[in-house]
Structure to design on (598 residues):
């Protein structure tokens, strides 16, 4: 961060702490005042009332003792000396508990009469004592009245003090609340005002590249924020310029790509405006490309028959892979139409892309293939019929042959039956997808059936001095879900090629194993292998090897490997080729493990 931005401005945190401390001190002082007021309002009055109550109690005890001394026959629960002691104790207590105005004079009068009564020995016959008795009762009554009036005055004074304390506390609380609100508003203003000004500056949507108008900072944090925003704005402006240049470059590249595509391309937004098109579409409808971009698709100024057909075809009910015949350079050509929705960043539909692909050449190729297959099918019927008749005649005379000959005859007859059953399927295998093959899957012991499929090739290999070894790495039988008629064709084609290209005194090794997910069949020979130049195309149908490749017969058509690949993939497996080490060819078939039968 640039150190120049950290000068002369106080941190915002310091301002907040200062305002917070002022508010804390204000409310702390208010709380202390309230506590002191409550203490004095609630503590003084009970103490004063207690003094008055004790004085009244002492007056009552003196009156009782005075009456008992005057009329002893009425108060016989104590002796005369005890009553005197009670009076003196109460009088002494009252002398130390004076709290009301005039109470001291009353106590002095009571003490004077008490001393005179002690001298007269409380003679009930004395007229003086009778007068003193009446005067004593009067003074004691006045003493009670004075203290009662004091109690009432204290209670009223307490109420007045409490009311004043409540009013004063409320006023102070109201003033402090106003001060706190004022301080909080000032603090919020210092916090929010610069942020609001920054937000307003951004809401005005300034143009990238122009200077960003931000408020003058009033704190260190705001200054750092404005500094960083200016730096970000500067980088954003630079990125925008780069993006504009990049978009122009991308648009140029897109136009080059669109022009290199032979298909006709049309991009429309939701209002049927043309966002993009290419020369392919321009040639079809006879409208210059520069007038297409930005125009309304339904309002083009052209009477081209192709445009009228496409305008009718392109609508909200556009079906995928529709075909339409259009006239191009005086020739009727067939096009396939496809549509793709264009979605925005939030997933909403913002337009549609239409692509029209010329199918004319492909249909011609399909027609030529159909004619070729028809001819091939016709040519296969006669040799298949002759081969079937010959195999049946040989089967009837197999007893005249040795054991190996009988095996060959039986194998030929079985193969002829299989050829008859699947001739129509495999005559098309060179140009159809693997999932088009119709399979009759069943659970079969693949590891045991392999022995029967290998037998005829062992006899052929023996004549060429080529040995065939079969190894099953698992002790248990390996089961697989296969078509027992079609899957052997994959094995037969691979073994046929292996025997065909293996040199004398060599071996062909067949290994079968199973793991958790796959069944693996590996066929390895010691022949010349497949040249690297042919490996990418060796599974293509009707691939013809170049005459320069000495390992492959000139003019050879690769139907065998194509059939093997199609059959394996139809069983949801795959076939791979690896060059042998140090020579030879290795073909590996991987099939999915058979489903467990619950």
């Amino acid at each position: 961060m640039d150190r120049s931005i950290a000068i002369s401005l106080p941190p915002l945190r310091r301002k907040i702490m200062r305002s917070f401390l002022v508010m804390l001190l204000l409310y702390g002082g208010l709380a202390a005042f309230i506590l002191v007021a409550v203490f004095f309002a609630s503590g003084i009055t009970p103490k004063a009332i207690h003094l008055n109550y004790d004085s009244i109690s002492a007056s009552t005890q003196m009156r009782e003792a005075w009456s008992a001394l005057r009329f002893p026959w009425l108060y016989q629960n104590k002796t005369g000396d005890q009553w005197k002691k009670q009076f003196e104790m109460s009088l002494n207590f009252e002398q130390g508990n004076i709290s009301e105005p005039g109470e001291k004079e009353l106590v002095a009068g009571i003490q004077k009469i008490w001393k005179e009564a002690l001298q007269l020995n409380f003679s009930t016959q004395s007229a003086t004592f009778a007068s003193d008795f009446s005067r004593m009762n009067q003074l004691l009554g006045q003493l009670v009245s004075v203290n009662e009036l004091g109690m009432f005055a204290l209670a009223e004074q307490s109420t007045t003090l409490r009311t004043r304390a409540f009013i004063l506390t409320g006023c102070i609380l109201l003033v402090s609340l106003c001060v706190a609100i004022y301080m909080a508003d000032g603090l919020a203003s210092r916090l929010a005002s610069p942020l609001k000004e920054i937000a307003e500056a951004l809401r005005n949507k300034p143009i990238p590249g122009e200077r960003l108008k931000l408020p003058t900072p009033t704190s260190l944090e705001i200054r750092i924020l404005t500094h960083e925003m200016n730096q970000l704005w500067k980088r954003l402006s630079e990125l925008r310029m780069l993006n504009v240049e990049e978009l122009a470059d991308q648009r140029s590249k897109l136009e080059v790509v669109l022009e290199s595509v032979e298909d006709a391309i049309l991009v429309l937004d939701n209002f049927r405006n043309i966002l993009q098109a290419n020369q392919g579409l321009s040639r079809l409808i006879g409208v210059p490309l520069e007038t297409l971009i930005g125009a309304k698709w339904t309002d083009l100024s052209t009477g081209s028959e192709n445009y009228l057909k496409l305008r009718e075809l392109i609508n909200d009910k556009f079906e995928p892979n529709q075909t339409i015949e259009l006239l191009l350079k005086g020739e009727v050509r067939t096009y396939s139409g496809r549509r793709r929705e264009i979605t925005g960043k939030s997933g909403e539909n913002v337009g549609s892309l239409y692509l029209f692909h010329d199918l004319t050449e492909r249909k011609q190729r399909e027609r030529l293939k159909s004619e070729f297959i028809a001819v091939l099918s016709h040519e296969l019927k006669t040799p298949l019929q002759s081969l079937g008749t010959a195999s049946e005649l040989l089967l009837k005379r197999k007893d005249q042959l040795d054991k190996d000959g009988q095996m060959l005859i039986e194998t030929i007859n079985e193969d002829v039956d299989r050829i008859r059953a699947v001739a129509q399927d495999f005559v098309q295998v060179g140009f159809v997808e693997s999932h088009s093959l119709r399979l009759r899957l069943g659970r079969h012991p693949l590891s045991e059936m392999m022995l029967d499929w290998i037998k005829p090739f062992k006899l052929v290999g023996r004549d060429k001095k080529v040995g065939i070894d079969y190894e099953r790495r698992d002790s248990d039988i390996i089961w697989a879900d296969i078509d027992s008629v079609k899957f052997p064709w994959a094995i037969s084609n691979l073994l046929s090629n292996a025997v065909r290209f293996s040199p004398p005194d060599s071996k062909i090794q067949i290994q079968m194993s199973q793991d958790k997910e796959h069944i693996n069949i590996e066929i390895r020979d010691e022949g010349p292998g497949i040249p690297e130049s042919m490996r990418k195309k060796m599974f293509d149908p009707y691939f013809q090897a170049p005459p320069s490749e000495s390992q492959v017969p000139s003019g050879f058509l690769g139907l065998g490997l194509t059939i093997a690949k199609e059959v394996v993939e139809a069983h949801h497996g795959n076939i791979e080729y690896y060059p042998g080490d140090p020579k030879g060819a290795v073909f590996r078939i991987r099939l999915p493990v058979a489903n467990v039968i619950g």
Notes: Residues 44 and 155 are 11 Å apart (CA to CA). Confidence is low (pLDDT under 50) at residues 1-7, 430-435, 553-557. The radius of gyration is 60 Å.
